[in-house]
Amino acid sequence: MKSFDIVVVGAGIVGCAVARELSRAGMRVGIVEGGAHRGATAAGMGHVVVMDDSPAQLVLTQYSCSLWRKEADHLPVAVEYEGFGTIWIAANDEEMEEVHAKHAIYAQTGVVSAVLNAAELVMAEPNLRKDLAGGLLVPHDAVIYPPAAAEFFLSEAQRLGAALFRSRAVQASHGEVSLEDGTLLQAERIVLATGTECDLLSALPLQKRKGHLAITDRYPGFLCHQLVELGYLKSAHKLVADSVAFNIQPRQTGQLLIGSSRQYGDDDPGVDAAILRQMLERAVSYMPALAGMSVLRVWTGFRAATLDKLPLIGPAAGLSDDTSLWLAAGFEGLGITNALGAARLLLDGLLNRTPEIDAGPYLPARMVNRMEIARA
């Protein structure tokens, strides 16, 4: 049996960021990764973005984005951190009202943004269709390559003494983690950061939400910012119906990463041709020149979603009577953005010290009442 202060189960970007943060604090850390492809980390877009779907989401994403910016100059080139900024696209006057409302919210909370009128939007992104109403530029948002970031955080954790175990965890409770290869790990605390692979705690209130992405051949200079239609927020709100939204990201290679889709109740990892077609048609409707471009690859992934669209960060109290279990899960599409903030909050909780932001909205115990209401 091998003993640690903390065992982190899951080596996606959140688990690796948590392992690094705990190792930095001098804790003896074990980290377990049983999958070959790091789930949502390998499948996601890599958008580091401030989101204001709710006040709590705004606080956490703003905090996490600030931590990414502090690290930016020290990240390896392979992480591909680029401060491209985001432009939220308004298709009509009604959405321009949302742009101004979003701008006001950001101004109140210290997030830098600028309203673009129609002409300014064309200047910023000439390949958008010309009848759009305008947009909101958030210049400090960024883009990364998530697998490289996870690998960097993991290597840093290992450099600081963390031990990596490449085997699937088949049981994790009461201070013990059993691995498929027969290894038994013991720790005072266990952090579950397993994304959608949540069978280690059956009470976890998570749902899989399938998404599609497509990447094109190289078209350098075609796109300068991450572009997202304002309707994306409405799409993300839908809890049942399938949806697509225009979301496109420039890569350092000159390739274009095109999203996005959201589906509940489809556990098949295969590409859904109908949803993919809708997603690409949506993208072409905003950027007509995309129709003539070559798509090199299409893939799917699964987001781990909670009922209130906020992650579970902290002790699993209320979901389990096992006091050794802590959670860093349920990030849906914001695991890349929130990895660093979640790691800080988790460490603060474990050390019983005051965090830089209020941790209350993200504590797993909040889900107990919501689940009871949903069952009523």
Automatic annotation (TrEMBL):
Keyword hit for Oxidoreductase: yes
A GO cellular component entry from the record: cytoplasm
GO MF terms held by the record: oxidoreductase activity
InterPro entries listed in its UniProt record: FAD-dep_OxRdtase (IPR006076), FAD/NAD-bd_sf (IPR036188)
All residue ranges annotated as the FAD dependent oxidoreductase domain in the record: 5-346
Name of one Pfam family that matches: DAO
UniProt KW keywords: Oxidoreductase
Name of the featured protein: Glycine/D-amino acid oxidase-like deaminating enzyme
Organism name: Edaphobacter aggregans
